[in-house]
């Protein structure tokens, strides 16, 4: 079981508080093992904490679930997102994967981390193949966190998935 210490107002430390307080799921980079993608964050992005992933020749590359969850929304033709998969990870957390070319999961399906959910495309409001990805808490896009590391804003840098 995961245990953590939590500081509360007044400086009292509650040691070994059970999880169920607000915690971030341990999201991983949403691609198969052993791959490196460039991830771009920018303040002009909508929503601002979304991240766009690219790599050379990425059209139709597999996109995977970044954490266990239940597929909440599958939309093949959202006006903005194009092919969209929303996964519910519990505790108010959702991930959005957008502009997908193909989608290989259905609403209500349970997925595990690293399960393929679709392929990279350029559907919806997009001007080239890429994966648009968001982590939302209670509907609000949060700064993304991968492998427990927070993504810096306004930066394009490589993200590597764990070795196979
Ligand atoms: Zn985007």
What is the topological layout?
Blueprint (H helix, E strand, L loop, with lengths): L2 E5 L5 E6 L17 E5 L10 E4 L7 E3 L4 E10 L3 E9 L2 E8 L1 E2 L6 E2 L4 E4 L11 E7 L2 E3 L2 E2 L2 E2 L5 E5 L4
This protein binds zinc ion.
What would you note in describing this structure?
With 164 residues, the protein is an all-beta fold. It has one domain: Distorted Sandwich (Glucose Permease (Domain IIA)), CATH 2.70.70.10. 0% of the residues lie in helices and 47% in strands. It contains no helices and 16 strands. Strand 14 (145-146) and strand 15 form a beta hairpin. The site of zinc ion (ZN) has 4 residues, from loops. Residues 45, 50, 52, 132 line the site of zinc ion (ZN).
How is this structure best summarized?
The chain is mainly beta and 164 residues long. It has one domain: Distorted Sandwich (Glucose Permease (Domain IIA)). It has no helices and 16 strands.
The percent of residues in helical segments reads under 10%
Round the Cα radius of gyration to an integer and report it: 16 Å
Low-confidence stretches: 1-20
The shape, in one word, is globular
Tell me the structural class.
mainly beta
CATH class: Mainly Beta
> What fraction strand?
over 45%
What is the straight-line distance between the termini? 26 Å
> Secondary-structure element order, as H and E?
EEEEEEEEEEEEEEEE
- Record field, number of beta strands: 16
Q: What is the number of helices? A: 0
User: What's the CATH architecture name?
Assistant: Distorted Sandwich
Largest sheet, strands/sense/barrel: 9 strands, antiparallel
Bound ligands, named by name, code or SMILES:
zinc ion
Number of domains: 1
């Amino acid at each position: 079981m995961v245990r953590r210490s939590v500081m509360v107002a007044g400086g009292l430390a509650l040691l070994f508080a059970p999880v169920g307080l607000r915690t971030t799921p341990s999201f991983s980079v949403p691609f198969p093992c052993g791959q490196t993608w460039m991830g771009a964050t920018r303040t002009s992005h909508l929503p601002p904490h979304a991240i766009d992933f690219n790599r050379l020749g990425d059209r139709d590359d597999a996109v995977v679930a970044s954490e266990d969850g239940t597929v909440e929304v599958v939309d093949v033709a959202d006006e903005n997102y194009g092919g969209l998969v929303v996964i519910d990870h519990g505790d108010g957390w959702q991930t959005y994967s957008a502009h997908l070319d193909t989608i290989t999961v259905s609403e209500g399906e349970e997925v595990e981390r690293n399960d393929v959910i679709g392929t990279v495309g350029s559907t919806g409001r997009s001007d080239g193949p890429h994966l648009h990805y968001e982590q939302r808490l209670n509907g609000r896009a949060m700064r993304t966190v991968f492998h427990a590391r927070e993504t810096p804003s306004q930066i394009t840098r490589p993200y590597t998935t764990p070795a196979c």
